[in-house]
Write a sequence for this structure.
């Protein structure tokens, strides 16, 4: 579906944002029998900032949803080992075949997000790109009852929803409009510059560390490798941002001289992209008639490359809570997310500080490995997801408490300056 003029006037759930977290949430809700609309201000298949690396939990989710084969069919190379370079010391970790996962993958977001959108549409969701949120509607009690958007002729339109889900990134407009407050904020940020290289021919994930700098190489689609350079956020602001290309090569040379030499013989297949850094946070992620998922709800520094895996995990946690249809289920969604994420977030914050020596960063990586194993164990204990022949019966009717008819007297809350 391409036109907001053609969508229904009312949905069980409206998802604002159709990237990794939003498209996955729309997919899972639609498979449960809910009428779902997802909107996104960007165009289908457009790129976005990302490290691309899926960890075991993320690959496990795609397999459980019946989408892993489609991802593999795009030609993204399998990753069967991860190599950690601590100055001149090397630690190689094999990706063991277990939990239904034989390898890891790092699809481009142009690939993964599009596949998730297509799967959501196939499940019955309406997805409209090129449409920005203009505001929310509320009833007299302050409950969110829908969204405001402009149709193709620029006329403001209201679409009613039993629940509005913000999956619109770390600067979420939905979070802004409902006043979702952060309650745990990181202390540190890392800056990052990355680009896509052809002719590098590196196998597996590679992560490089020296005091004060780090880098990584992640193989992705089209025979390309995403190579990133990370440094303290303060260094990015005072030095790197004034000459992204020179700063990028300088940090990679500081971190791993052999990698810098290999880049001199490879071809940069894209422009370099920089991210100045944002402090991680947990936000209040549900309220009357609304919820948040993905970076809108929980964000951590990208230095540990776990954001896409978080998005897929939390999409399922939220979809299950919405389908259950109680405020307690939404509260449990947030509590479970926090339990699975808090130590990972705080350890990532420690790595992003760059206030470590090589022994310390190795200990932090072992702590992250323990948390990833715990995450996989948790997901393996979930019941089969609805749809795709998974064996869990779709919900036959929308849950009454969350998906009630909007009350009379609905009031608009416009988003000032929405694009």
């Amino acid at each position: 579906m391409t036109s907001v003029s053609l969508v229904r006037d009312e949905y069980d759930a409206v998802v604002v944002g159709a990237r990794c977290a939003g498209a996955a949430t729309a997919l899972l809700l639609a498979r449960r029998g809910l009428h779902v609309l997802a909107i996104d201000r960007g165009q289908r298949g457009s790129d976005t900032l990302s490290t691309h690396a899926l960890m075991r939990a993320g690959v496990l989710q795609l397999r459980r949803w019946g989408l892993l084969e489609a991802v593999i069919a795009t030609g993204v190379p399998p990753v069967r080992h991860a190599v950690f370079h601590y100055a001149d010391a090397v630690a190689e970790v094999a990706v063991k075949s277990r939990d239904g996962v034989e390898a890891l993958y790092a699809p481009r977001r142009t690939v993964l997000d599009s596949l998730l959108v297509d799967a959501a549409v196939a499940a019955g969701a309406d997805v409209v790109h090129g449409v920005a949120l203009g505001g929310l509607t509320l009833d007299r009690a302050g409950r969110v009852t829908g969204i405001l958007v402009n149709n193709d002729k620029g006329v403001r339109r209201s679409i009613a929803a039993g629940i509005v889900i913000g999956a619109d990134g770390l600067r979420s407009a939905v979070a802004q409009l409902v006043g979702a407050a952060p309650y745990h904020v990181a202390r540190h940020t890392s800056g990052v510059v990355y680009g896509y290289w052809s002719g590098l021919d590196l196998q597996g994930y590679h992560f490089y560390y020296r005091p004060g700098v780090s880098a990584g190489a992640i193989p992705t689609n089209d025979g390309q490798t995403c190579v990133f350079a990370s440094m303290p956020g303060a260094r990015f602001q005072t030095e790197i941002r004034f000459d992204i290309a020179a700063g990028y090569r300088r940090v990679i040379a500081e971190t791993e001289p052999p990698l810098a030499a290999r880049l001199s013989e490879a071809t940069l297949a894209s422009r370099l992209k920089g991210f100045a850094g944002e402090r991680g946070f947990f936000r209040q992620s549900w309220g009357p008639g609304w919820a948040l998922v993905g970076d809108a709800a929980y964000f951590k520094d990208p230095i540990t490359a776990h954001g896409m895996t978080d998005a897929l995990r939390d999409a399922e946690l939220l979809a299950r809570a919405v389908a259950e249809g109680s405020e307690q289920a939404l509260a449990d969604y947030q509590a479970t997310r926090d339990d699975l994420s808090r130590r990972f977030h705080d350890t990532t914050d420690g790595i992003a500080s760059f206030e470590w020596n090589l022994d310390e960063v190795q200990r932090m990586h072992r702590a992250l490995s323990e948390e990833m194993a715990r995450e996989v164990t948790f997901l393996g204990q979930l019941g089969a997801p609805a749809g795709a022949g998974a064996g869990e019966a779709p919900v036959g009717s929308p849950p009454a408490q969350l998906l009630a008819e909007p009350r009379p007297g609905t009031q608009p809350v416009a988003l000032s300056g929405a694009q």
